[in-house]
Amino acid sequence: MSSAPEQEAVQGGALTPPAAVRPGSPTPLGARCCTGPDGVEGTNFALWAGGAEAVEVCLFDDEDRESRHPLTELTHEIWHGFLPGVRPGQRYGYRVHGRWDPWTGARWNPAKLLLDPYARAVDGDFGTRTESVGAGRALPAQLYGHVRDWPEQRVADTVRDDRDSAPYVPKGVVVGGTGADGGEDDDAWRDDRRPKTPWPDSILYELHVRGFTMRHPGIPERLRGTYAGLAHPAALDHLVRLGITAVELLPVHQFAHEDHLVRRGLRNYWGYNSIGYFAPHAGYAATGTRGQQVGEFQRMVRALHDAGIEVILDVVYNHTAEAGERGPTLSLRGIDNRGYYRLPDDARRYADYTGCGNTLHVVQPHVLRLITDSLRYWVTEMGVDGFRFDLAAALARSLHDVDMLSPFLAVIAQDPVLRRVKLIAEPWDVGSGGYQVGAFPPLWTEWNDRYRDTVRDFWRGAQHDVRDLGYRLSGSSDLYAWGGRRPYASVNFITAHDGFTLRDLVTYEHKRNGDNGEGNRDGTDDNRSWNCGTEGETDDPAVTALRHRQLRNFLTTLLLSTGVPMLVAGDEMGRTQHGNNNAYCQDNPTGWVDWSLLTDPRWRPLADLAARLIALRRAHPVLRRRAFFSGRPQGRGGLRDLAWFTPGGTEMTEADWYASGATLGMYLSGNDISQRDALGDRIVDDSFLAVLHAEARPRPFVLPGPPWAGAYELLVDTAREEQPGAAEAPYPAGCEVGLPGRSVLLFRAVPG
Q1: Least packed by Cβ within 10 Å: which of 229, 468, 673, 682?
Q2: Biased composition, Basic and acidic residues: where in the chain (predicted)?
Q3: Residues with catalytic annotation?
Q4: Backbone phi and psi for residue 423, each to the nearest 5 degrees, phi listed first
Q5: CA distance 249 to 387
Q6: How many CB atoms lie within 10 A of CB 2?
Q7: What is the pLDDT of residues 77-109, one digit of tens each?
Q8: How far apart, in whole angstroms, are the C-alpha atoms of residue 453 and residue 368?
Q9: Phi, psi of 689, rounded to the nearest 5 degrees
Q10: Alpha-carbon gap, residue 639 to 449, rounded angstroms
Q11: Domains of the chain, CATH where assigned
């Protein structure tokens, strides 16, 4: 198809003289309100579009009438111009002209209105203005730069579609001040107003802004599913009562819904399909989408900070919602496809290290700038405290291979803003050599899936010995004790958004993803779960009791392990997805937290145990190690800082580690902590003995005698629903105690 003829700039039916656009400035990128050289207020527009031949900024009024204004100034591949009179709230987009030659990677198409990569707010959604969206229907064909329904499908992506996409795409919104109340506030995010929780003291809580608040009875209905809902006292009270120090929010960057989901009447719920790296997702705003979402997000962050809770964003800089060559043209593809994306030798295609169709070309300076500008913006102007990077190995690739000296990691390491915030890597991607657990450099922590798999295997009886469990309980030194890294490099988790919930982990051995509409083919089959003898929910009291015990075992193991624990919202109260282990498209009660569980007498004790364990962890530095264990005394007459015991009460030998068994005693000496306090004084704490027993049958365990302790107070017993109280008499050292089948006992050591 031929190119559409260029249109004159029209607004409200009247011609707008091209002279209205003044030269402006190439920096900063995006749309920024400012004052022109003659004192007239307006907006400066700046867009990097490397190989483009022309760029127009397009303004839209409330009736969606469009006026086009050419940006004639070009500085270092940045097209820019100043438009007087353009104020906050103005909606806009870009049309970018250039060659159409997909065989060489050139995919410019001025018929497609493009979202500004630097837009700070977005109004509208892709395809929502047409009745064609819904179950059994597709996204509008106008969203695609190519003719999607071309008869010869094998070359359809090479045939340009000249139909205008503007009526079917969201628009960027010019945003004014960036203070928490929507106005300028240069002091809004001073460091002394942030919680700044040290890594060893952190308790992470992964949650979905919408899913966490949609069913909460204490949140007003109009605020449910929004940033304002998460800032509501009813939501904050639960986080504070539980003892959480940081929320890790599933993606809140503006994202789009995939065509295959729309065809099935579903939506992308998790949000791992970003299209706007500066814009808070408009669908989570209660106050409006003409820039109000920015202030609402900032007020949410402020409320969480006031409650002592940090905000970490799950960010998706590895790919965008434009997918592969058959995907829509929404932003970067139409601005400079070859500049923004990794293309293989066959430049018509895309290098796909993400499994989502494309991969951002992070080694390109302008792409690296886009990412780092976005990160700094969320820290300095939106107030967040850190980031979890989805498929971080894809960002660490140089030309092809993962490289821990890559430009992305190098820039982060030296950036004065970013090197001070919390950085969490999902240390893998789907490409060759993409699994990099334990390989990220200092400054970074990592999601430790080795921890997840080991703990799941131990409690389902799939391990022959306790060697790997010992490493995971003590901080995974086999993975992280190098290059100055610390135990808190390991983010320990048993569940995450992706996979079974904790309750489903003990209820199902097989996924039940039929509602996703993919024939139950999606989601992993490697769940490492155990249904306790019956698949699915049951009224059998023996099975139910065992499942509750296993949940207590998982929570206790997680919160006693060295490293940074991460809980998933609702796991502490028995949330279920009914066996769906890939609820990415379940924006409904399947994916939302069911708050009625918190008042259910069957599940409330689990939440109480989680809060009890978190409080115990926060009260005792021996459970929050800042350095790896040495296995040696820290002073004359001291004990080893970490000791392991057999069921017979003797210290583990080399042969014991290799012997078949599923019982392990772990002694943490509070008198032998290697770190010092801020004044340089020794830190002294209580000592603890944790005994983990994964066998079904009870067995005796001899409590170690002097010098380890004179007696032991029982603090936690996962075989019980109600935990021990202070009135229980201590056990004398050297005595034999009975370990219930599949249980954890935690003792405080009483000096002799």
Answers
A1: 682
A2: 511-528
A3: 390, 426
A4: -120, 120
A5: 9
A6: 7
A7: 999 999 999 999 999 999 999 999 999 999 999
A8: 34
A9: -125, 120
A10: 32
A11: 30-174 (2.60.40.10), 199-621 (3.20.20.80), 630-750 (2.60.40.1180)
